[in-house]
Write a sequence for this structure.
């Protein structure tokens, strides 16, 4: 029983470590795995490691790679949760208009000439505002249903899309590149990787005991209630958790598409639908995917950088279509 | 001690003004059949008894505790529901589906153990679907899915079965096998309440009958006092002919 969970997770963990080593080694100056090892040892023990390699790894590449890992993991876990909540395997973390709200917040801060922390804070506020708006509207006078939540989210997202276009049209030209990069997802905004990384870890620990309840919930609310699941509190919990995870991810790196849709879906096709396996697997695979995508984004046309969202979409769309085509 | 009792229960059927308060007492070992035309509220009644639907007034008591005060997990250890329709959002195998019947008994950190697997496999065997254990439920026929759903509740092993048309989609042999399973559960001291459309299955396998009329009127009691042709004719607004076969009445609709 444990090996059923253990084997896929160990393989994914190895892939995650490999992706981090690649991300640390590749760039304007190549650093070999041996050097990375030296740096790691040097950092723990005394001296050792060459100073430049050490600065590059510890201060530039490692924080960025860890941020990418955290954001990818958060998005994939949020996507998997949204899919269970809406009982729709094609839902994604942005489906409820959350990234639109975050984008409005971030763009407004940029338009106001604010930087750094203010952009992040404003994006987080926008994401939460959008979450509550959608939930409040979908709840209405009666109770909400997945289809009603989905429709409200899609329509609110479309509304945010129009506002974003309007803001871009009205923005002064010199601010446009920054805004466009933010909209397409960009990890160079990421500062410290620890808050999203800790959030990811905490979420996984909290979700594992809920895994079997989520499995039952995926079979419909009535069946779940008949099997002893307190459906409404669990749905609330998933909704709030998925929103927080997405908001944290969007705040760290802008809106990065397809990770939250493609990663859970691919893992479901490969590993089945046990949420106890899928959720930690999503954290690892989503993180790995985004670390690799970000490494590509900063090396493909170096010294220029591409928005990482473009890479995830370019990788994600064909993979997804291929899997969907094969699965018929 | 009764398994389930209702006190002045009025079920909440949309656009129905009132209805007769139900004071049912279900004892261990009894098999109840709920009969009524389409839209009479059979499913609503069953969901109300399961605590999945709030009653308009009155209360339901499970083992002498008010259902609304119990936790869902606690309820699920005593009462199992076979639903009339099922949605499958995500693909799952037959064995995985039966295994979720163990959910109410496992703690959050616990994985299903050998005993849980053994129960699920025995239930699949009992319902004649063990050979399908690794198939995806979405690829099964309607009757096979119905049997998997019943196997899930058998894995759950409740004291009280609430089954909404358990013979739906089943062929003749499996209809009779499922009814025999229900009777066997009752003989072991559990209680069964099921909604049925087939009067003849009710006449053969149920010992108590509840007749539910579209206007909310109801009457209930031992089978022989309920399965009276005149009462059934007014219930379904259908003329019936009755013959006796194998010691049980058989009702046949007649023209006119």
């Amino acid at each position: 029983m444990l090996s059923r969970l253990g084997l896929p997770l160990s393989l994914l963990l190895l892939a995650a470590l490999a992706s981090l080593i690649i991300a640390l080694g590749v760039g304007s100056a190549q650093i070999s795995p041996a050097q990375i090892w030296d740096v790691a040892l040097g950092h723990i023990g005394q001296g050792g490691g060459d100073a430049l390699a050490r600065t590059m790894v510890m201060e530039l590449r490692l924080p960025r790679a860890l941020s990418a890992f955290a954001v990818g993991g958060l998005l994939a876990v949020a996507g998997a949760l949204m899919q269970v909540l809406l009982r729709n395997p094609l839902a994604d973390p942005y489906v409820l208009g959350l990234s639109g709200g975050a984008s409005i917040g971030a763009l407004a801060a940029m338009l106001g000439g604010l930087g750094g922390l203010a952009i992040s804070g404003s994006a987080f506020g926008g994401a939460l505002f959008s979450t509550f708006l959608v939930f409040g509207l979908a709840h209405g006078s009666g109770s909400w249903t997945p289809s009603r939540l989905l429709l409200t989210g899609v329509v609110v997202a479309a509304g945010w899309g129009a506002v974003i276009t309007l803001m871009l049209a009205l923005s002064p030209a010199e601010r446009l590149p920054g805004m466009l990069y933010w909209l397409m997802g960009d990890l160079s905004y990421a500062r410290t990787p620890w808050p999203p990384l800790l959030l990811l870890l905490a979420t996984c620990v909290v979700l594992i005991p809920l895994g079997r309840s989520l499995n039952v919930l995926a079979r419909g609310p009535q069946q779940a209630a008949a099997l002893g699941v307190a459906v409404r509190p669990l749905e609330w919990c998933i909704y709030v958790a998925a929103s927080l995870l997405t908001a944290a991810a969007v705040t760290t790196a802008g809106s990065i598409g397809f990770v939250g849709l493609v990663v859970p879906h691919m893992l479901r096709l490969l590993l089945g639908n046990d949420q106890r396996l899928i959720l930690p697997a999503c954290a690892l695979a989503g993180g790995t995917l985004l670390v690799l995508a970000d490494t590509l984004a900063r090396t493909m046309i170096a010294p220029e950088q591409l928005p990482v969202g473009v890479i995830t979409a370019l990788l994600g769309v064909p993979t997804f279509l291929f899997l969907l085509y094969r699965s018929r | 001690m009764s398994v389930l009792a209702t006190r002045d229960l009025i079920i909440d059927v949309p656009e129905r003004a009132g209805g007769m308060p139900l004071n049912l007492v279900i004892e261990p070992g009894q098999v109840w059949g709920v009969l009524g035309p389409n839209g009479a509220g059979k499913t609503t009644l069953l969901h109300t008894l399961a605590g999945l639907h709030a009653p308009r007034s009155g209360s339901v008591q499970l083992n002498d505790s008010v259902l609304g005060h119990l936790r869902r997990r606690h309820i699920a250890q005593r009462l199992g529901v076979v639903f009339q329709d099922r949605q499958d959002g995500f693909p799952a195998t037959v064995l995985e589906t039966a295994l979720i019947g163990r959910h109410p008994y496992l703690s959050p950190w616990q994985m299903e153990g050998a005993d849980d697997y053994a129960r699920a496999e025995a239930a699949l065997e009992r319902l004649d679907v063990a050979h399908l254990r690794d198939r995806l439920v979405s690829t099964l026929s309607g009757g096979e899915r119905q049997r998997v759903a019943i196997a899930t509740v058998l894995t759950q092993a409740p004291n009280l079965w609430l089954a909404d048309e358990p013979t739906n989609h089943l062929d003749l042999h499996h209809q009779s096998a499922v009814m025999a399973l229900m009777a066997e559960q009752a003989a072991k001291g559990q209680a069964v309440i099921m909604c049925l459309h087939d009067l003849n299955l009710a006449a053969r396998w149920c010992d108590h009958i509840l007749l539910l009329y579209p206007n909310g009127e109801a009457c209930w009691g031992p089978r022989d006092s309920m399965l009276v042709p005149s009462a059934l004719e007014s219930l379904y607004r259908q003329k019936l002919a009755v013959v006796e076969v194998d010691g049980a009445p058989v009702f046949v609709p007649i023209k006119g």
DSSP finds nine helices and twelve strands in chain B. Chain B has a mean pLDDT of 93. The first strand of chain B starts at residue 4 and ends at 10. Residues 122 and 155 of chain B are 8 Å apart (CA to CA).
